[in-house]
Amino acid sequence: MDKAAMDIRPLSRSELPASAAVLARWLIGKTLVREHRRGRMSGRIVETEAYVVGDASGHAYKGKTARNASLFLERGHAYVYFIYGCWFSLNVSAGRAGIGTGVLLRALEPLEGVHLMSRHRLGARVEDLARGPGRLATALDITRALDGRDLCAGGGALWLGDAVAPRGRLGTGPRIGITRETQRVLRFFEKGNRCVSGPRALSG
DNA sequence: AGCCAGATTTTCT
DNA sequence: GAAAATCTGGCTA
Length: 204
What we know:
With 204 residues, the protein is α+β, with helices and mostly antiparallel strands. The chain has one domain: Methylpurine-DNA glycosylase (MPG) (3-methyladenine DNA Glycosylase, Chain A), CATH 3.10.300.10. It contains 3 helices and 8 strands; from the N terminus they run H-E-E-E-E-E-H-H-E-E-E. The model has no long low-confidence stretch (mean pLDDT 96). It binds a DNA duplex (13 and 13 nucleotides) through strand 3, strand 4 and helix 3.
């Protein structure tokens, strides 16, 4: 027996800011909902990074390919990529159709379906279930099958919802794990939240 | 808490 | 053939 699903209002595309840097900040505190075969999983978005137009660290920098095509979809679509031989990561496309830019979702604070996430991440503490982009995708069972999905279609397999709780103070800093344009301040997180990835010194 | 190496495969050069 | 928007476990303090 599952508890009743939370009442989460789906976000519509017109609400999303049409710039990666603004969208990344705006998404902190919003909700990501995964409608899985076994049940619903959801969490508060507590950490993001923006990959802006003309950004040498972005996957779209060298143009559109089969791999990154979803980054060029109208804002609010999923771009799922496979990295380091083991992990998937989820982005939200952030520009107009034909513009390659997006927001990497780096961490969630689990809300619903914690037992399902735990099944995908055996042995992890609740605050570590979706703490980091690879862990987030693993916890929610997000694979390339979801690449290109419309995240503004509430009721689909994966969608964005409004905030269900007030957002805490916003923190910012340089992005993690990149080798180019490392000095740009395009990482956003909820200050003090235990589900934010990286060293604690960077998330307070 | 911080540093380091290994894993493992897709993608593009 | 090299690099990659990462994670884990083992080590040192």
